[in-house]
């Protein structure tokens, strides 16, 4: 069992990305930042459900947010995704 505890793949990020809706939100955000209303207007699910998915991704570090007035804008944490990709590649080429 050596190496099993040396896992560097962030399982919380993997869990956050394991939902089809959250992946859709991730692609929707791409290289821009959007608020909940802008995201929900491009998805077929309710605003509260979008907010729930955003919070899961934010807790996992997949998204970052900033507040402007009453609105919260979300964007992709590219560092976290790059780190995940590097961990997966390291695992594959180990």
UniProtKB/TrEMBL annotation:
SMART domains registered for this protein in UniProt: HTH_ARSR
Keyword Ribosomal protein (UniProt): no
Keyword hit for Hydrolase: no
Location of the HTH arsR-type domain: 4-94
Keywords tagged on the record: DNA-binding, Transcription, Transcription regulation
One GO MF term attached to the UniProt entry: DNA-binding transcription factor activity
Name of the protein in its database record: DNA-binding transcriptional regulator, ArsR family
Organism the protein comes from: Tindallia californiensis
């Amino acid at each position: 069992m050596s190496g099993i505890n040396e896992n560097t793949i962030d399982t919380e990020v993997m869990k956050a990305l394991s939902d089809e809706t959250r992946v859709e939100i991730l692609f929707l955000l791409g290289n821009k930042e959007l608020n909940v209303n802008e995201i929900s207007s491009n998805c077929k699910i309710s605003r509260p459900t979008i907010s729930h998915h955003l919070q899961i991704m934010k807790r996992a570090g997949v998204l970052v947010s900033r507040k402007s007035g009453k609105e919260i804008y979300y964007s992709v944490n590219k560092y976290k995704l790059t780190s995940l990709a590097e961990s997966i590649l390291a695992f594959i080429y180990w």
